[in-house]
Amino acid sequence: MNARFNKEVDLAAPRKVIALSGGIGGAKLALGLKQVLPGGALTVIANTGDDFVHMGLHVSPDIDTLVYTLTGLNNAQAGWGRAGETWSFMAAVEALGGEAWFKLGDGDLAMHVLRTARLAGGEPLSAVTAEVCRALDVGATIVPMSDQPVRTMLRSDEGWLEFQDYFVRRQAAPVVHEIIYEGAAEAAPPPGLCELIAGDDVDAIVICPSNPLISVEPILAVPGIRGALATACAPVVAVSPIIAGRAVKGPTAKMLHELGFAADAATVMQRYAGLIDAFIADTSDIAALEALGSDVVLAGEDIMMTTLADRERVARCVFEVAGKARARKGTADRFSGVA
Ligand code: FO1
Questions:
Q1: Ligand 1 center from residue 61 Cα (angstroms)
Q2: Nearest-5° angle of CA 249, CA 240, CA 323?
Q3: How far is residue 304's CA from residue 6's CA, in Å, rounded to a whole number?
Q4: Cα–chain-centroid distance for residue 233?
Q5: What is the full DSSP assignment across 14-42?
Q6: Whole-structure pTM value
Q7: 259 in a domain, yes or no?
Q8: Model confidence pLDDT, tens digit, residues 12-68
Q9: Is residue 304 one of the residues assigned to a domain?
Q10: Alpha helices in 138-201 (DSSP H)
Q11: Mutate which of 57, 58, 68, 80 to test ligand 1's pocket (most atoms within 8 Å of Cβ)?
Q12: Which CATH number is 240's domain given?
């Protein structure tokens, strides 16, 4: 839990907000946040535990899903890649007997080729990502959780699997026994990221409704980030990726279950214990959360984000709840030491 809150922020008109996100689930809320905030106010820390080198190309799926979603270039049906994509490259790869399980569209390919070339030229991933955000006028800052490689690895009934091998090639079918974030202990956040999180001008920090195990916790595993969040001046608000025992998208519920956890919003909230000041769950899950007697501020909302209006509504709810967290906890101990 945060040691203290800042006093100077205005949650009715937030100007500096940080979000942590994985792929499409988190990106939907990131878009809502961007829409209701003034231009440039949003920084999204992206999971890079899903990154891998495929056919010699550095692919950063969650960064790209965020870029495409925030610019409206995204393929909304698939939840990854670009809308109106063409597939000549993949067809040619297949004709040559190449690997076709991971699909790189023609437009998307440009992203991976440019990123790979710039990384090979010595630029860090954060700089390459910042250039992409500028070029595509993303209207928000996207920062990878680290410039060093961190790779999510899953021990399954089929042995140790790299993330995309598990997630895409095997369609998340293997039973998962253990998850590690290889390289996390040796990694560091990009320069300035922890200082940004700690800043007393930050209005709110949002943990988006992403899978805690494979999207948020890889970010928290990068040394310095968890500590910066736990002592941040701004209230930290998480939004549940689970509604009534089901993941909105993807294998979150299946993975929680296989690892011995109840696949519900309470498990997600408990995984963030010590970090969050408020938790937003679906209205149908609130009674079960209240029964836990946690001192985290709870809010029930329709968190299924189908339309852009839904995403903006949930984003506004985040700021309202952040305000409540500040009001409830922002006395005596929370303000002690703040000049
Ligand atoms: N997901 C798939 O299910 N199948 C694919 O062929 C696929 C290709 C792909 C290419 C580029 C990219 O940035 C993402 C891609 N994804 C694909 C999505 C991605 O693997 C996952 O959704 C994320 O890693 C989980 O957040």
A1: 6
A2: 140
A3: 31
A4: 20
A5: ---EEEEE-SHHHHHHHHHHHHHSPTT-E
A6: 0.94
A7: yes
A8: 778 899 999 999 999 999 999 999 999 999 999 999 999 999 999 999 999 999 999
A9: yes
A10: 163-164, 193-198
A11: 80
A12: 3.40.50.10680
